[in-house]
Every structure is written in structure tokens, then in C-alpha cells.
Amino acid sequence: MTPDWAYEREHWRRGYFRVAGVDEAGRGAWAGPVTVAAVILPGLAMDYPFRDSKQLTAPQREEYAAEVRRVALAYAVEHAWPDEIDELNILGATHAAALRALERLRPPPQALVTDYLKLRVRIPISAPPKADVLSYSVAAASLLAKTERDAVMRELDRQHPGYGFAAHKGYGAPAHRAALERLGVSATHRRTFAPIRRLLEGSEGGLFPAQP
Question: CA-to-CA distance for 73 and 93, rounded, in angstroms?
Fold first, then answer.
């Protein structure tokens, strides 16, 4: 499936021509930030190669993210770090990062399309599921969020060697689980996430108790 302009056109018909796509990366990870990007593409209904970042290889994501930066009318990327995630919960931190990214857009957006992220804003918003697959604007935001977060995780891999952040990007891969058992919790882990919380509490049965 390729994106199109259906959701953007709904806003264009109402006179809102600066439509920002919003998407995030890293919500389900156990470590590192959740990263949110907002992108306003020119309202020209052009075909772009942009796709949901999960559908692309890493080199394609980098190539297309560079193209997003080249053609976008405006874009911004914001991170919510583990301390903010632990304070607000993951959804609250994602919303906070999204609002920060939107505030940085110049010119400001007149309407939004998000990937089921129901932000409290004073402008029209469409928040359908799978918008990163359906909308060019959200696909463009997906590319920026994913590539920016991957770069952060490579840097965190250098700062916290042994966890394998550059490979698994902080998600619950077997190598990450083994590293946690061996090294313990780092400063960049999300302490309120259940697997990390269990390790910190030293619960019986280890980090990953047997399933009933």
C-alpha cells in the first residue's frame, strides 16, 4: 500500500493548506527516548517516494529522510527522554514531545494528520490508525522520527557499551534481555516499564518470569 493525500485533502477543502503530519518512533522500547516528528509538505499533491519507515531498509530511510528535509515547507523533531517518560507515562510523554515539535514549526500548521495520536490542539486534526501507511505527510514524519531516533540510539550505544542499543534500538530483543541480566539497568532505561521495574525491584523469577 502506498500513501496518498486523502486526509490532507479533507483539510485543504476547508481552507487549511498547511497540514502537518505527525508520527513517533520508540514508544515500545525499553530504553532511550520516544521521538516525535512533525512535517508540513508543500500542498501540491505530488507523488513522493515516502513510505512508513517500517516498510523500508535503513539506507532507504536515510535517503528519503534527507529528501523530506529538502522538500518540506517546515519540519521539527523532538525527543521525550526516559525521565519524562517515567514522570508522565509513555503516552503523556509522546503527546508532550509532539506538542513541542508542532510549536517549532514555522510557518505554523493549520491542521494535523497523526498516526492515531489524539492530541489536544486548537486546530483541526485527523487521527486515523495506520496513518503512517496512508498519508504522505505522516509517512514523511515517520521517516524523520525513525532516522533521528536511530542516530540517538547509536550514540547511546557508545555511551553505554554492552547493551547493544545500536542493533536493537532499545527494544526487548533477546540480546537486550541478556545484557540487562548481565549489566543491570542503565541511566537511559525507562524505569517504569514493567521489565525494567521488575529488575530494579529484584522480583523473584528474574527479569522475565515464566509464563503461567
Answer: 26
Binding residue numbers for a divalent metal cation: 23-24, 115
3-state secondary structure of 58: helix
CATH number at residue 97: 3.30.420.10
pLDDT means per 10 residues, the chain with 212 residues, are 92 97 98 98 84 88 96 98 98 98 98 97 97 95 98 98 98 97 96 95 55 34
Positive or negative, the CA dihedral 27, 117, 84, 193 is: negative
Residue 81 lies in a domain: yes
Residue 27 carries which side chain, given as an amino acid letter?
R
Which residue ranges make up the annotated binding site?
23-24, 115
Q: In DSSP terms, which residues pair with 75 in a beta bridge? A: 39
What's the predicted TM-score (pTM) here? 0.93
Domain count, the chain: 1
Minimal CA–CA distance to 170: which of 32, 18, 1, 22? 32
**Residues 40, 95 contacting (CB under 8 angstroms):** no
